[in-house]
């Protein structure tokens, strides 16, 4: 018998499992990947304190803690459906149907695709794919790469590729279109990078924060942004170049670019071809919420959180009884925030399940407070207005509270 | 945007931006109808790669007022499974 | 492609047992516990299949099981994600092939 099924063994899922199991609940964790850790695996950056954040080590710590608590972690298990059952939820997997009164969906995020002509060629991959290949599998994505898209995720992974000795030839923008939108506008890209500059873990993003404080100077900064770009550990960041086509027959051979103005308009006659044997597309992240949708959970559209997010409370409950969410499915944030949210979710579930320790103490309140504290401290923040996004979700939750099914009635 | 004909949006079914645009123009269709006519997002991965791009493109053709509703429905199975698995056979 | 043996922060790659496997009839070496996708890339192979209809080459895209682009046939089981499957001694892997489309009109004949 299992009291709680956790879907996803990333920072949120494992922390949730650990918190719940710590109160005596029997927990099963399922994950599609070959080992637990989710997107902790692959994370590697230097904190402002100078300390290294090694996601693989963090994942191992959580895994050991989970095993010590008797949590059953099952890798290589894909969940394809979720339905209400007589007492809780049925979770359908490629290895059979699991049933439990409580489910925590911690499926994390997926990458926002930016289609570029030629992006189906072997050697073109999402930037996350290159991260996993490099830091988890320890195989070089290629000899010489080009990154299309300039955002926090791209810079974090650029840094990781450089650490592994992989040459990244340049970072360029995607061509501005209906999909890339602001990611194809140098002006907007600079603004978003500057918003994040004070939080960035590496010096690369602090490059211009002093110079480009106000709008006028920022505009001049974009217009006069050097053609060859500013260098990040040797890799030019070319915000005034856009990738128009990825070239190759059997696999990637290069990227054709054009120069663009501050608003992403193409400057005619500026075609260039740059050789490369791999290309990373960096479109950013959005919450991977398909299971919550299949379960029938209501959603809210909050761009600051990354798009469509299942409606949830600060206790990580959804309007559906027994169904909880934590981590990037609730909004794109750092792995540390995901972990704190997971702990809150695990305690919240324990409280509903009537576990004395969680119900009587102030543990849950403290866990929720801890999420806020961590959010303010983290080195990597994906959206500058994350706090606004979070408070919008809380307002939505309160606005609907009376109409939703109250969780906690079906504890058995 | 240049060379829309070459810009594949849905990788699984090789549906291009140009096909989506001309189908939307010709049939003045909803997001759902555009998906059914072109098969964009209906290939092997079930739209798991291109769905968000498709949403953005469809929104650029026909801006949707009610953003809280997910434009295209999610349906199980959300991961490819064999008929045997769905039928309850797990060997 | 080169393996990252020595990493400034992550340290030295653990010495792992080598296993051999077959891809499209040719033998290759892999490290135990690594994925089929990683093993093939380490052997310099990027193309895992072709698009069933158009025959365009495809390789890994997302590397975490979402995009299905890396699907291959493993020990006669089709549509297995190379990025989520651990390679095993003696495994036979086949890449996908182009399917015939006899009923499809070709462009220009409409």
UniProtKB/TrEMBL annotation, chain A:
InterPro entries: FAD/NAD-bd_sf (IPR036188), FAD/NAD-binding_dom (IPR023753), Metab_Enz_Cyan_OpOx_G3PDH (IPR051691). Keywords: Oxidoreductase. Pfam families: Pyr_redox_2 (PF07992). SUPFAM superfamilies: FAD/NAD(P)-binding domain. Residues 3-342 form the FAD/NAD(P)-binding domain. This is Sarcosine oxidase alpha subunit. It comes from Bacillus badius.
TrEMBL record, chain B:
It comes from the Bacteria. Pfam families: Fer2_BFD. This is Pyridine nucleotide-disulfide oxidoreductase family protein. Residues 8-59 form the BFD-like [2Fe-2S]-binding domain.
Automatic annotation (TrEMBL), chain C:
Keywords: Oxidoreductase. This is Sarcosine oxidase alpha subunit. It comes from Bacillus badius. Coiled coil: none annotated. It comes from the Bacteria. InterPro entries: 2Fe-2S-bd_N, 2Fe-2S_ferredoxin-like_sf, 2Fe-2S_ferredoxin-type.
